[in-house]
Design a protein that fits this description.
4 copies of one chain form a homotetramer. The first copy, chain A, is α+β, with helices and mostly antiparallel strands and 424 residues long. Chain A has 12 helices and 9 strands. Chain A folds into 3 domains: 3-113, Butyryl-Coa Dehydrogenase, subunit A, domain 1 (Orthogonal Bundle); 131-242, Butyryl-CoA Dehydrogenase, subunit A, domain 2 (Beta Barrel), CATH 2.40.110.10; 249-406, Butyryl-CoA Dehydrogenase, subunit A, domain 3 (Up-down Bundle). Chain A is globular, with a radius of gyration of 24 Å. Chains in contact: A-B, A-C, A-D, B-C, B-D, C-D. The interface between A and B is large, with 47 and 47 residues. Chains A, B, C, D: Homodimer.
Chain lengths: 424, 424, 424, 424
């Protein structure tokens, strides 16, 4: 953490403690009691807006966003430290206007949006008046290979006409969500990485139909939701195109890195919470004359969880630092490393915490199964583990090929056929 | 499979194919559409009763139950083969009157019930007119140590007065469930394994309050349900005691083994289904120019799943055989081995199938997350994995101590300190 | 075990106990003291020959070999039970003339040898007068793909002229080893599986040069040895060809199955020994006031080892049975399953036993590191784990494709897109 | 790495490249050819002394040792970066006089030695004229619990009389090794952590008998060796006691931390080497028409190895930093974390590299099996993994107990029993 940003970190911590923690219980209780799961109680929004105003007053609003003119802003490393704090209360990010997927959408609009796009969508997003979504994954194709994206957009009479289906559109269930960025195939005849584009589509546009929420291990995550949406002859003006036709993948580079740092730091926060719950339960229950924590392999389980949590934290900080120093493109291997390691390992730690809890651990009486479901989805989000492993390995193999020194050392060993002095 | 029971197996297979499979789609569709999740549509019951009648007509009704007088019946090994078939359609067991926990309850009533208890509860259970539940686990104690069971029952004026809470009472949400067997502590001053008793409590008895369903990874499993029940001054006649005061653990021996065989065989069926879904998905989607099944480690994942499925099946059949040959008590190590190995490994296989599916794999579009939730609960049911591992290890260590031959062989090796001819 | 062969099993057990166990200590002590590690002390051979004669007298000699005329012999299943006994004393097999690779070589000669070949090599092998080797793996190629075998044999003037290198030729260090079967490429222009042939080469033939033993984790396994041999213009008569040119792979089918059953049964015997050593050590040492066996995860480690040992044993017996019932070809998937599972898992169990032993566990004072080295080699022998996993998975995928029933069931599930009743 | 020490790091790198790498091949070749494995060829020592002199000339000699008067020296963090370089050539440390166990012994003598002890032993050690050993582990007791150390030393007539056995005394096979520090039990009636003392014993003292080398997976590691030594009435002057009677454990605190940093950094270097060998082999062999690196799970294996290598490196650097900032005592949890994680994981990576190599990977043609053996011993050295896991978990549980904040957060969750709105 740079010295210069420590005051910001402390202000965020203070804000969460004073303005967010105190409203959380009432907020969630009201939410649980809503008859229509896809709506908010007016008092919920009142609580939220109150905390948002306090953040604005304290100068904490939109700190995630680099200065529009100078490009200056928080380093990823400093942001990582702040993200760790944000991860401790699920409401915190929203009160500071830095929730996913809004942050990514705002960054994209800031960098490649036209003045009109900024006026219409970025302004209310920055003001915290609306929410947004990002529609990428499609139900009918292996989205692990982004080139597979096939939902069609055709230019007709100055309008893009969209047809197809997207699913797992997170946040699209929120009644405040007003705008989507949709990844579509506009140019099937271009070279593979130039076929897709990103287009702005208002949520309430004719032809946009929310078919329902995707469940995750039985959770619908209402009212946020991971929605399944059908687009039928959705016609938007040509000017809703972001940056330009065929720029879909280029735009994605903008949003990938920082969001993953943020996600991974929150995942680590979840692992720490699971570890605390494991210890609490292990200390408070007795079986066969001993505290559960002292039975069998439980102490080793705690130790291994602790070691991995610290390892993951260091790796995420390193990735953040790499982004600051090397830029998003060069740092992508570090980002893939945390993306491939963190959610899988956090799932394991949560699962072990469940096991220590007995049947309560997988029930609604414990947050663990919800935490597990959430972390399990991250093993697909922004590319499944397998894709990241492949990216990392390909880079490692290439680096090996490019390094004469490494090759020399390795080859020296592989040719070492001693005669071993057999039979005289 | 014994030659003598092959006709029975074939009749069961035929029954499922002809009488159960054809009604399944309509049955589940009606269930999904019920407004009150804890009820049945009349047509659902009509379909069920139709299939039950066909099973009665075909002489397949209650085949699980040994002859009351001679004790003769299906061997566990033969039952295991039949259970594997029952596992393929979740409705099948019910149409043959051999669902859990009814089978265990009926066995217990058959063996230790009084004539009055049999008349009142066993008769309608055997006739398939009512369902039943078994209340053992308590929310406030580590139930891994069954001696911890503490819900109190006190004898007052010829009545047992029950006070306390139980949870995860499977099947207690079903409107047809009329009777519970409840494990309670009646004799706190007796020696450890003589303090608990089992008492019959009608579901609709005054003082019995269903507080709600326990969720499993967000699933409530309605209308079956895993219910949380509070008992407040529940007074039942002294004659509702099963077998006798302090016999709680002795009764449990009756029900443990065969049910676990049945459960494990069904778990293996779930693993096979997960493997099929994994292959189906892997063959039907393409990424990076290849079928998903041919990418990365997926073929090895399939192979390892297949190997473990066959290993588990053989181990379960061996355990069933051990029960037949050695009796429940001597075979308990084999039963613990399958209980400790099967659900954990099946969870892993289902998880791998999910990963091959992408985000669809954890959604309501795939049965995998529900299958996972169900198998995950089995790692606690009838004792968590850890307790079974401890039982197995303790037995193995004791067997070692008792075997002079094994000790001699091991000691011979541990004393082998060669001089190694150092320095001349 | 069939009833008919139980007397044979009992006779083998009696033979080991009475004739092999008593000579083992002296035999190994003399071997350790040999100055030339690649030789035998005369007394060693005397002891061996004595035990061999007793086996002949008891009618136990060559029981592994099917009747030359009727093809009748031990079933693989019965052989598996006997192999488990043979695995308990490393000298046992030799005293019964059923050591690897002699058994495979004798089977091959018996089935495809010419009368002259039988007279010259099979006869002394059956008599236990000489030993033999099988040369397949080559140092310069990935032998996991057997089609890679490239050591050349060219027919010149009625002689095969062999040039190239082979390594890991087990048993070729034994001074009694007189004959090798060598897999060579004779027909580079034939279709892929018709290019290789097997040729008989006497050990003492001009041009055959033993370059030295291959070490395994530092062990040279003298005087048996896994030798590295160079062939320089080795000329053998055309009649040394086995069966016919291009039949190399066909011949291999003969030897693969039963040997793997035997190997895997012995591996399981090693796992049992490791488990016994783990318990013995765990009971005999104390740390932090407790027996080591009672510390941390050690009891669970014992339980998991026990469960896997029993699972592996059942799987190997199943594979043996499959060979008996289905034939070697159809049973090859079962054989691949044991080959892929057993050595890897046995390595893990031995490693855990080492860890319980502390530093003694990896030293020469314990047999564990030698056992580990031996099992670790089996993860390559007759094809590395990865090749077997691929074979299994390919077969499973094909079986899925061929089964309409499995496909129907899987597809039904993958199309289940519920509408989930969102927003009315 | 601090700016101030970067020149030192660069000088070390230059020294290794210019003075150590060029002599390594000749040095090892001569060593392999020595008839007496426990000796050096004169030319070997000449080569070594030449490189040592160059290090002295360059001011790199003894940089590991803090200033005797000011206590100032390299931070552990800076040392960690240097250790990573030292790990790349097994001769490097010796040419800079910073080999284990000499460094630890010198540190101990520097801090607690008497002027006479320093004159006699520290001086020649600092000058690189002799080598030393540290005798702690005993064959007859579980050394995981250091309080078990039981080799006796009794004070008689101004002399300590030592009787007992020690094993795994690394470096005691080297003919240049002249002095041992021996941990003994001097005060059996003191409180548990005050019973042991450390005493200086010259290697050539009457009564000291080297029984032979302990092998590690068949390797004797000559001429360094891990020796088994018997002490029979070894009488040394009272003044050979280090620091004072009963100070055995206190002295050990001095040596533990930095050595482990050094060891773990070298282990990571081994993992990197294994990864390079894995890639080299994977690129240079072909099977089934593909480079091995592209088959099955191999790319994912490479990725996972890479991720873990980076995670381990960061964790070791963090532990070094913790030692600098918090001191050895407070940092001990971080040191236990690297000790418990690194060697186990490095063993796995080396094993995977072996598997990619085929049978060559476990033979003397590859360094992998020797590397594996070495890393496997580290899972016992300075306490087995299990002891470190226990230390970490106990500390984590205690930290939890001490933190009201963590407890409050955890308890809040564990009491969250929602009513779930069942049945109206």
């Amino acid at each position: 953490m740079s010295e210069g940003n420590k005051p910001l970190l402390n202000a965020v911590i203070k804000h969460i403690r004073e303005n967010v923690d105190p409203i959380s219980e009432e907020y969630h209780r009201l939410g649980d009691a809503q008859e229509d799961r896809w709506s908010y109680h007016p008092r919920q929004l009142e609580l939220l807006e109150g905390a948002k105003q306090k953040a604005r007053d304290a100068g904490l609003w939109n700190f995630f966003l680099p200065n529009a003119e100078t490009g200056e802003g928080l380093s990823n490393l400093d942001y990582a430290y702040i993200a760790a704090e944000l991860g401790k209360n699920p409401l915190a990010s929203q009160t500071l206007n830095c929730s996913a997927p809004d942050t990514g959408n705002m960054e994209v609009l800031e960098r490649v949006g036209t003045p009109e796009q900024k006026e219409k969508w970025l302004k209310p997003l920055l003001a915290g008046e609306i929410r947004s979504a990002f529609a990428m994954t499609e139900p009918d194709r292996a989205s692990s290979d982004a080139k597979n994206i096939a939902m069609s957009a055709v230019l007709e009479n100055g309008e893009w006409v969209l047809n197809g289906e997207k699913y797992y559109i997170s946040g699209a269930g929120d009644p405040r969500c007003k705008i989507m960025i949709v990844m579509v195939k506009t140019s099937p005849d271009a070279e593979p990485f130039r076929q897709q584009s990103q287009i702005l589509v208002p949520m309430d546009h004719p032809g946009v139909e929310i078919l329902g929420p995707m469940h995750v291990f039985g959770h619908d995550d209402a009212p946020h939701g991971h929605m399944h949406i059908k687009f039928t002859n959705v016609r938007v003006p040509e000017t809703n195109m972001l940056w330009g036709e065929g720029k879909g993948f280029e735009i994605s580079q903008v949003r990938l890195g920082p969001g993953r740092i943020h996600h991974c730091m929150r995942s680590i926060g979840q692992a720490e919470k699971a570890l605390d719950l494991m210890i609490e339960r292990g200390l408070s229950r007795v079986a066969f004359g001993k505290k559960i924590v002292d039975l069998g392999k439980n102490m080793e389980t705690i130790s291994r969880a602790k070691i991995e949590i610290e390892s993951m934290r260091l790796l995420v900080l390193k990735a953040a630092k790499a982004m600051d120093v090397l830029g998003n493109k060069e740092a992508r291997i570090w980002v893939s490393m945390i993306k491939a390691k963190v959610p899988e390992q956090v799932c394991d730690i949560i699962d072990q915490a469940m096991q220590v809890h007995g049947a309560t651990g997988i029930s609604q009486w414990s947050p663990l199964s919800g935490m597990y479901a959430q972390q399990r989805t991250l093993r697909y989000a922004d590319g499944p583990d397998e894709v990241h492993h492949h990216v990392i390995a390909r880079h490692e193999v290439q680096t090996y090929k490019d390094s004469n020194e490494r090759q020399d050392a390795a080859k020296q060993h592989t040719e070492n056929r001693g005669s071993a002095g057999f039979m005289g």
